[in-house]
Amino acid sequence: MTIESILGAIVIGAVIGALGRLFLPGRQPIGWLLTIVVGIVAALIGTAIAQVMGVDTTPGIDWIELVMQVVLAVVGVGIVAGIKRGSRV
Questions:
Q1: Predicted confidence (pLDDT) per residue in 29-81, tens digit
Q2: Which parts of the chain span the membrane according to its record (predicted)?
Q3: Which domain holds residue 88?
């Protein structure tokens, strides 16, 4: 892994995590760092699922893969927010 790939994963994770929070209704009691981590994990899992399903990699934006990643980020943010809410009780 190079510095560029690590920084790219962080940026992509931040964007995917932010989109996940945007599409999830209500307030999520998680910070920006946890949002980035959820986004990175969602991006990695979404890419793996897309590859297993045979989604073609294109030189442009892979919309099917991106949708999978954002849906996984919504689910991930929801799970993490639920866990954080439950631990405050």
A1: 888 899 999 999 999 899 889 889 988 878 888 889 899 999 999 999 999 99
A2: 6-24, 31-54, 66-83
A3: 48-54+61-89
Q: CB–CB of 37/13 below 8 Å?
A: yes
Number of domain units in the chain = 1
Q: Compute the distance between CA of residue 34 and CA of residue 82 in angstroms, rounded to an integer.
A: 13
Residues composing the chain = 89
Q: Quick count: other Cβ atoms within 10 Å of Cβ 42? A: 26
> Is 85 domain-assigned?
yes
Dihedral sign computed on CA atoms, order 30, 18, 12, 61: positive
Nearest to 84 by CA among 43, 38, 39: 38
Q: Which string of b and e fits 45-56 if b means at least 16 CB within 10 Å? A: bbbeebeeeebe
